[in-house]
Amino acid sequence: MDALIKNAKKGDHLAFAMLFKENYPFLVKYLMKITMNPDTAEELAQETMAKCVQKIHLYNGQSKFSTWLVSIATNTYIDQCRKKKREKNWQGQEEVYRKLKWHFESRNEEWNDCLEALGKLPEDVRIPIILKHYYGYSYEEIGEWMKISAGTVKSRVHNGIKSVRRELKLGEETESHYSEQRTTK
Amino acid sequence: MKKQKVIILNSEQQNKQDFDAIHELQEGLQRIDQFPVYTPNLQWFEQMVIQEQQNKRKKLISDLSVFFIVAFIILSGMIISLYQMPAIFILVQIITTIFIVVYTSVRLMKKANHI
């Protein structure tokens, strides 16, 4: 195990601080992708780090420290969504990506329609898609973190991709291209 | 035979569409990765860790205090009832045993039905 992690486990706050500083951009960017909101991502990153300090004795070093952070961050976000839904503070999926879009536009960066399609998906579908197809984690790992079976993760990813395709009208283009080909023949 | 060919083509087409969608998703997400993130300095992280370690210690002390107070109250009640009212002590023991047996069997039955 890394010397920094060993020291952090012993309670060395400088080792902890160095570990967090090293992994902070990765963590915030991951949270930005799943929350689609830079402010929420920063809040959740702090909450995730606080949980890490409390749970460091549970880290066994089998996976990378960043992977462990991702698993804690995912659970923290899911818990926050559940809490908001219970308190009926849920803004709905339509609102999720607007803040990120605004940040993109204010920096004159090109907005991607795919991000909009991803933002329209519920968080329990968006998270497995990002973890599987962007970070390359296995269905089993994702299932373990989200406390669902690997089969459920697989079907959520599959249905999510289908929704994204529909949103981007990827199927329609090829279908119309197909029907054109058929009529010309 | 012809029908089979059409099915294969459709699934290939679908796979290609999925692949295109995934590729576009990856491109979009890569843009978020290029987004600048402000990282606070090392002192900020250190302060945060110290604060959290203090909170953890405070929580442990309060949890242990509650545990010892509750344990003291329960044990005192049991000892008093044993010497002053043995009938109530025996009744409590019987009720507790029955409760544990019923609770455990209900949980096991639920688990077995779920499997």
From TrEMBL, chain A:
Q: Which Gene3D superfamilies match?
A: 1.10.1740.10, Winged helix-like DNA-binding domain superfamily/Winged helix DNA-binding domain (1.10.10.10)
The record's section on CDD domains has:
Sigma70_r4
Alphabetized InterPro entries for the sequence: RNA_pol_sigma-70-like, RNA_pol_sigma-70_dom, RNA_pol_sigma70_r2, RNA_pol_sigma70_r4_t2, RNA_pol_sigma_r2, RNA_pol_sigma_r3/r4-like, WH-like_DNA-bd_sf
Q: Domain RNA polymerase sigma-70 region spans what residues?
A: 19-86
- Ranges of residues in domain RNA polymerase sigma factor 70 region 4 type: 115-162
Q: Which domain of life is it from?
A: Bacteria
Provide the alphabetized UniProt keywords: Sigma factor, Transcription, Transcription regulation
Q: Does the keyword Nucleotide-binding apply?
A: no
Under PANTHER family, the record lists: RNA POLYMERASE ECF-TYPE SIGMA FACTO, RNA POLYMERASE SIGMA FACTOR SIGV
Similarity comment text for this entry: Belongs to the sigma-70 factor family. ECF subfamily.
Q: What is this protein called?
A: RNA polymerase sigma factor SigY
Native source organism of the sequence: Neobacillus rhizosphaerae
Automatic annotation (TrEMBL), chain B:
Q: InterPro entries this protein is in?
A: DUF5345
Record key words, sorted = Membrane, Transmembrane, Transmembrane helix
* Organism field: Neobacillus rhizosphaerae
Highest taxon in the source lineage:
Bacteria
Q: Where are the transmembrane segments?
A: 60-81, 87-106
Would you tell me the protein name for this molecule? YxlC
Q: Does the keyword Transmembrane apply?
A: yes
Is Transmembrane helix tagged as a keyword? yes
